[in-house]
Amino acid sequence: MDAGKQLAARGLALVTATPGFKARVYASETVPASINGWAPLGPVENVEQDHTFRLKTKGRKFRNYLLWITELPEQNKAEIQELSLLK
To answer: pTM (2 decimals)?
Structure first.
């Protein structure tokens, strides 16, 4: 997700019709070529239908935020219906 400008987001909220997957949020000023170039902003979490990740930016500003799905639910797919950054 491109925030349009650099900001220290405090959260990333999502709505999904396929809860039960695991994900983690990362951030970067640019768009790195691999996941290794992204900074993790918290632990891997079990995602509920309405879920908010609390981001640990430590005041650092990023332009790009990435939701990385680490494990799919039983139906082997994850749908994201809404995704929002919280300032």
So the answer is: 0.93
